[in-house]
Amino acid sequence: MTPSAKREALAVLVQDHGVPVRRACQAVRLSRAAYYRPPRSRLVHDTDVVTALNEVVGRHSRWGFWKCFYRLRRAGHRWNHKRVHRVYCALRLNLPRRTRRRVPTRRRHPLVAPARLNETWALDFMADALYDGRSFRTFNVLDEGNRESLAIDVGTSIPSARVIRVLDELIQLHGRPARVRVDNGPELTAETFVEWCAAQRIAIGYIQPGKPDQNAFIERFNRTFREEVLDAYLFDSLEQVQEITDAWLATYNTERPHDSLGQVPPLVFLPRPNAPAESSFEVST
Q1: Quick one: CATH architecture of 121-269?
Q2: Residue 35 near residue 3, CB atoms below 8 Å
Q3: Predicted confidence (pLDDT) per residue in 60-73, tens digit
């Protein structure tokens, strides 16, 4: 039982039940001095510690507890570490400080549409939520040669291992790309993904941090996907999202006119071997 709880029990015995102070103190094992002398406010008691800690942290914001404690000791304060740590936690100085994630410096790569398929694949993620509030993500893959969407994978979590599995399936179906254009997300900077690309002899073209325009082809595709699918439907399940997305992809690749391709679909502009194409369109040469 804490001292404060003992004081509450002592007050109940003395005031409500008329038990003598001496017997009540013996019952709760608390001295009579504690009954007659009200407890000091801890805020007043620790004012000097609070002031000293704030001065140290104000000058050295990245110091942890022990550096602050030893600095106070060297300044002549003799408070023990348990008291200083209690005040340190009460001031919420023990919480982790938010820092910006350090991203390596990236070289700017020119955004030029390749003349062939499988020269550059663009990868990106999107986020949305089901009708009941559960969030999900999509992993989008685009061939920059003809702006064809090769795949959109839907899931609540898409780590680097799942990214690799999707790309493996696409390589078996369409062949290996020479290069992938990606941002600096944790799934695409993970060691697992980097090692897989090296084993597959696929170059990684990281865009510069905060420069989504350097991955403009798939960013423009993401806008179309959001307007025509994600914002157009209320989804009840991930299976429904994937089903509607797959049907939309078939239309996008073979029927929907593309502004930058001369108003023809991607697979008409630059057909892929063994891929269906809409015969009602003709490519102007």
Answers
A1: 2-Layer Sandwich (3.30)
A2: no
A3: 888 899 999 999 99
